[in-house]
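Quick one:
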Amino acid sequence: MTMKKAGGNFWQVMLAPRIPAETMPRTTFDMRRFGNPRQREEMSSVHTQPTDLPGMTQGSAYPQGTTCFGNNEVYRSTHAHGFRVHHWNSPEIAGALAALLPDPDACFAAGDVCKHGTRSHAGKVTLAGKAYFLKRYNDRGSWYRFRHLFKHSRAIHAWQISCDFHTAQVPVPRPLICLEERRSFLLRRSYILMELVEGAITLRDLWPSLAMTDKVGLVAECAEIIGRMHKSGRVHGDLKWSNLLVQGHPGSLRLTLVDLDSCARLDWRRRNGIGKDIGVFLDWLDRCEADGTVRQRFLSLWKQWAR
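Output:
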């Protein structure tokens, strides 16, 4: 939209009075830019308003607080070896922190690296005799440091989202330690240490070998997990089936949601986030399962858990 179409000059547009959230009309998730016609029809009954989104209250855009940043019975925050440190309050994690510092990168040398990219570096590491999952968000240069001058690192973001999910009983790997390195207020490296999900396989890889009873059970669990997440006021942002890990054996399967880097709080700016999450999940379900009853069961159960 050009400024001419918006009406008036630049300052008239910028200084125009904003419409209060409580006076905005009810709207539906905008599926015109996402999903196929079938998904748009199925999602058309889901209504949201900025003040009645799941997990939100009138006048509050950030539900559930930030208790993971501070010193209390669950968490501890401190500075050590040039890092701002947030960690789970337990003797076991204190031992892991002592093994992790002062050089977290040294842990990768003796570990099993599964991702080595320009943005992040991740793998299985062993600290104080126990295996964990460690992820480093790389320092990507001057522009990256400047952009994060007044912004949290991706590790801090993942830490807070994971703690919120843990509180909301959404099954994610438990966050244990978060490290953020800044020099003269400029962000450098950041790290997050989490529980290792051992013996797991992605839902995408496991699905073809499952019996119908196990498929129905897993779809019901997916509906509960995604519904709890949306009810807590969060969206995942990347609900492909490779981000759903399955552990256990047929008859006793359990799911874990991973890769939380794209997760965000749900507010009026991201009111289409739920539609995107459900659309991505249903796309994968359509690829892997031809039985429409499984799809309908997921939708009906998700709506129950999300409200």
